[in-house]
Write a structure and sequence with these properties.
alpha+beta; 3-stranded antiparallel beta sheet; 2 helices; about 20% strand; elongated
Amino acid sequence: MSRMLMFFAVVLFWSTDVQAQSIDSVYWVVETNIHNSTFTIVHFYNYRNVKVHEVRMQGVYIDIRNPKHRKKLDLLMKQYHERTLTTSKRKKVRNTI
């Protein structure tokens, strides 16, 4: 009985850990040209390493070594992630009778 209880506790812990990783594993990649800083491209990837969004900023140069720029990118990623979560909730398919 205690083995079954331990097994279910481990499975429950593992499933919540996987869900937490799926949300936290969204990341961004910045593409700029150091010689010609007329634009910046920011790519957003999900936890499966699939590109989900791309933003091209004209006339902006982002240096990821600058903490202020990193915070803004994290905020932009968070806003995009929250927006996609709310739109996916709205698109629920209802079954007809």
